[in-house]
Amino acid sequence: xxxxxxxxxxxxxxxxxxxxxxxxxxxxxxxxxxxxxxxxxxxxxxxxxxxxxxxxxxxxxxxxxxxxxxxxxxxxxxxxxxxxxxxxxxxxxxxxxxxxxxxxxxxxxxxxxxxxxxxxxxxxxxxxxxxxxxxxxxxxxxxxxxxxxxxxxxx
Length: 155
What we know:
Layout: H1 10-28, H2 31-42, H3 46-64, H4 71-86, H5 93-103, H6 117-132, H7 137-154
Helix pairs in contact: 1-2, 1-6, 1-7, 2-6, 3-5, 3-6, 3-7, 4-5, 4-6, 5-6
């Protein structure tokens, strides 16, 4: 089933389409399709893209660890994602760390520079793919957009 995302504003729709393409390419380990999707994702607003993909990562982690995460859980998720992705992509473990802790709202310093758009776009779909297992990315993405919309309304 393909989601059209017609209900989303154009910027959000672009993020959804590029993210779905990247995660699908990661799932199938299609390097050419992945590179193409990553370029599209990297060309979008990285703050908005990071917020959406971070919400998906956070949801996946929270669902896997309903009683809360500890350092060992985060380390295990990181190691698994890096190893899985490294079988077919170059992976920077430090970027994966930043993605994981950022999704959980943990930041080492306020002065930390945000990830370059290409690093975010090139690693987040790999992390999401590993955390997804057999789950539907489209359903989680829809949930992330709804969560972001609720947060914006309540701000």
